[in-house]
Amino acid sequence: MLAASAALLNVNVVILDVGRSPAKQIIAPSSPSLAHIDGSFSDPAKIRELASKVDILTVEIEHVNVDVLDEVEKAGNVQVHPSPSTIRIIQDKFRQKEHLLSYKIPVAESLSVVSSVEAVHAAASTLGLPLMLKSKTLAYDGRGNFVLREFSQAQEAITFLGDRPLYAERWVPFSKEIAVMVVRTTSGEVKSYPVVETVHKSNVCHLVFAPLRSRDPTLSSRARAVAEKAIQSLDGAGVFGVEMFLLENGELLVNEIAPRPHNSGHYTIEACETSQYENHLRAILSLPLGSTAMKVPSSVMLNILGASSSMFELTTFTNFALTVPGASVHLYGKSECRSGRKMGHITLVGDSDAQIRSRLRLLLEKLPGGSS
Ligand code: ATP
Ligand code: MG
Ligand code: MG
What we know:
Enzyme class: lyase
Family: In the C-terminal section; belongs to the AIR carboxylase family. Class I subfamily.
Domain ATP-grasp: 97-285
Order of helices and strands: HEHEHEHEHHEHEEHEEEEEHEEHHEHEEH
Bound molecules: adenosine-5'-triphosphate, magnesium ion
Structural class: alpha+beta
Catalytic activity: 5-amino-1-(5-phospho-D-ribosyl)imidazole-4-carboxylate + H(+) = 5-amino-1-(5-phospho-beta-D-ribosyl)imidazole + CO2
Pathway: Purine metabolism; IMP biosynthesis via de novo pathway; 5-amino-1-(5-phospho-D-ribosyl)imidazole-4-carboxylate from 5-amino-1-(5-phospho-D-ribosyl)imidazole (carboxylase route): step 1/1
């Protein structure tokens, strides 16, 4: 999606990823010397090769080799956005929480824990049950989370989370999950997108409703202010996703920050004046930012997760989606479908929340794997 936006601005893009990855299918190399690179975004040699081909380097995932990003930036031939120091803070979710706390940004109480039954028991005694045990690193789509409901599950949790460093987080009985995309320019100006409501299923983002509706007239401005303050505390340009918990009493806690375009901002492609992707490019290229305002009254994004290995089942569903008014289908060009894999998304736009919800119902009835 970033590559598609870059193509419209005549921005040459070189992609480092394995094989025929989705982004490489979108944008052809503009010259043989700017050919895409096959390899891992954690491989030092491949990152150095990428840096030698570009003026500005950016990431779409935080699980990259940040030491090498530091090295290529310090060598002075390439700008890296967001700053490697920001990626380093965000890569470690516990360190990220400590950083946010040092800027007085509210987060759930958490404790570093070693991987032993005694340490997990001690954390559960301090923070209570249920307890959210999380991997500090390499977490995505809830794959580094374990909900400890009883002391007796401690060993199961440690085995499930593997040999990654762990921390424990106090359980948050949120009433809603919300998110705000924020874009930050090279000169440090920040601009936020409307607040959205995110609905997760088994720890994975399922739906995003934009804009968030609330009876609390202060919520939207409070959430945007918290998100902007969080991003002001970090260095470097680009878009960031700020995930938050809304409590019953209206309080907000930041869950985590993504230093890149984010699933909660996919809706911006059809529903906002400027998409998160285009504004990410504008920010890192020092071009004027575009408006973050919505251009439709209401929208919802539905993630398409694989229900099985069947591509046929998937395209039967997306072909049906093409018949739903206001629906835009995005398939990512992944070569294999697997249960639980993010294969694409659909954005619905409409004149009202009621219209969006009735169109969404049509999609949910046919969603492979069910909608509940
Ligand atoms: P992402 O794909 O967003 O990067 P992740 O693997 O980093 O996900 P988190 O965002 O930490 O995981 O958690 C995933 C989901 O688990 C949250 O969106 C929320 O629904 C739930 N969750 C996380 N932390 C807590 C908590 N402390 N209390 C209650 N629920 C939580
Ligand atoms: Mg995460
Ligand atoms: Mg998350």
